[in-house]
Structures are given as C-alpha cells and as structure tokens.
Amino acid sequence: MNLTDHLLAALLLYGLPALFGMTMIAAIGAPLPTSLMLVAAGSFVKQGEMTLWQVIIVTSTAAVLGDQIGYGLARWGGRSLVARIGRKIGGEAKIRKTVALAKRWGGPGIFFSRWLVTSMGPWLNVTSGIAEYPWRRFILWDVLGDVLWVVLNVMLGYIFSDRVQAIAEVFGNLAWVILGIIVAVILGWKIIQYLRSQESVTKNDLPNRDQASRPW
Amino acid sequence: MKSNIRSTVKTFRWQQWLVVAMFLLVAGFTAFKAVHMARKVIYWQTHRDEPIHGWMSVGYVAHSYRVPPYVLYLALGLPHKPPDKRPLREIAKIQHRSMDEISAVLQNTIIHARPPYPPPPTPPPDQSPAQGASP
Q1: What residues contact residue B47 under an 8 Å CB cut-off, 6+ apart?
Q2: How far does the CA of residue A142 sit from the closest CA of chain B (Å)?
Q3: Is A116 helix (H, G, I), strand (E, B) or coil?
Q4: Residue A124 CB neighbours (<10 A)
C-alpha cells in the first residue's frame, strides 16, 4: 500500500479524528492528499458512514487551525529570521518588495490558494505571516476559502460517491494544470515584457543597448 | 519582426535564459499533466468500475459496483450486520489471504450478483461470526 492507501484506510478505520489530524498537518505544510480524503469522506457520507455537517465542521476547523499555525510561526518567528538572512546575504530591498506585494494581493491570494490552487496554501500562510498581513483579514479570507474547499470536495465525493479514485485522479491532475498555467502565464508575461522593452530600445535607437533599462 | 526578435534574443543574459528555460519547463509539465488528465477523463467515461484496492471497505466496493453489500460480506465469510468498516487489506491479513485472493473472490461474486445472472436472494436474518469477522 502506498501513502494514499494508508491514509484512506486510516480514514475508514478512525473517521473524523483521522480526517481532522490529516487536514491540520497538511494545512501546516505536509504534502498529504487532503482533497482526495475529502472526496472519500463525501463518498462515506453518501454511504451513511459519516455525517455531512460533522465532516464539514471538523475539516474546516482543522484546515483553519493548521493555516493559523503556519501564519503564526512565520509572523513571530519567520520575520526576524528573514530579516537576519537579508542583512547577512543582502536582498533586503527585494524582501521589502515581496512583503509589499504580499500585503497588496494578500486577500485574493489567500482565498484562491485555499480551494483553487491548494498546493500554494501553506506558502501563502508563511508569506502572509512574514508580511504581517493583518490577522483579522487573514482569518476572514482563510475561513471563506477553507469552507468553500471543504464543501466543494465533500460534495464532489457525495455526487460521485462510487468513483472516488476516478475523481481523485482527474482532479489531482487538474490542480497541477491550474498551477502550471498560472506560473506559465507569469513567466510568459515576463518574457513578453522584456521583448517589448528591447523593441522600444531599438526604436529609440540608443547607442549602447547594454545600458538600456532591463525590466528583470 | 522576426529579425527584431532574433536580435533581442542575442541580448539575452543568463537571467533571461533562466526565465525562458523555466517557462519551457513549466509549459511542458503543464501540457503533460493536461494530457494525463484528458486520458483519465476519457478512460473513466468508458469504465464505470474502479479496480479493487486494499484501502477500500467491503461496503465501498459494494457501493462502487452497485451490488448488495451482504453478498460480498457472505463471500468473504463475514457477518453483514453490523457493517464491517475495516479496509480489505486488514481483512486479508486476519484471514491469512493475499489481497489478490480477496480481490478475486469479490470480483467473482460481483459478476454473479449482476445481470445476466438472476438478482441475489434477500439477505439471511443473521450470520454467526466467521473467520476474520468483527468482534
């Protein structure tokens, strides 16, 4: 049996406590297939082995708690560590820029990383903590996103209760495709920006192209 | 336009090449995952039955294959009341059987519980606990 099979077997045997533990550990940063666990839990709800409201409340609470731990550790431990590293090896300006970016786009980033691009969730907890993103706003976006994630996956498992493995295989790949598209678009945009800047440099006919401003 | 791009590419430093390489890597990975996903969607559109795995319970297999659970419990020598929630791997271990053997028994029972075979009879009232049964 692989790890996923062990986790699914644990879910069958121990039910809600297992689901709570796995979800919380995954929210802190462990790479566990929690979306699949939720789909399986939805299937068990349909079969009458679990109760819908209990699954939703327990899993949402576990996810929010795990996120808070990640955020808290980064805010009260990670920030000073990053500042120390910045002072030692440089790059303080870049850190400041990243922090400003995290503060500006924190809300939507937190929300979408809870349910759409879940593999980014633990990273966003850390960057939000380091950027000292306001805790009240963090918890608001966090609860909204986590509850949506739980309800979506459990309902998916409930609707396709006889095909947990099929759903897991398809949606496991979908999450990677979404993340890949987002990263590819960002990188592609960077390349286009560079090509455009060089084109404008050529048009202006600057004598030394190496002196031209570079966007990255 | 083409010559413009070519001349711009010539100005690339290692940072620009790194971004291009990362872009190609991510695009390739995404395309691979997208193709993999499409293949899975096509496969699951034509295959309704999931392969039996060790994590599944007897109840889940019955639900997935749309057969009455008691038929599978009886085939494994287990009482059908109360429902046994243990994973098949656990049942195989207790009954000193391999997972392949358990899977073969279940597959055979499923075939005989579905059309064109006649539907299984109504479940017996109670079973005495057999080997590997729940306490």
Answers
A1: none
A2: 27
A3: coil
A4: 27
Q: Using the structure block, give the residue that is written with the tokens 């633990």.
A: A122
Name the residue of chain A whose CA is nearest to B47's CA.
A166
Interface of B with A in 95-114 (CB under 8 A): none
pLDDT tens, residue by residue, A39-94: 999 999 998 889 999 999 999 999 999 999 999 988 888 777 777 776 776 666 76
For chain A, give the percent of residues with pLDDT over 90. 38
Task: Convert the pLDDT of each residue in B26-53 to its tens digit.
Answer: 999 999 999 988 888 888 777 778 889 9
The more confident residue out of A132 and A202 is A132
Q: Cα(A189)–Cα(B51) distance, rounded to whole angstroms?
A: 43
Closest CA to A164 of A5, A55, A48, A58: A5
Cα(B30)–Cα(A181) distance, rounded to whole angstroms?
7
Residues 58-77 of B with CB under 8 A from A: 59-60, 63-66
Residue the block writes with tokens 């919380």: A24
For residue A58, the one-letter residue type is: V
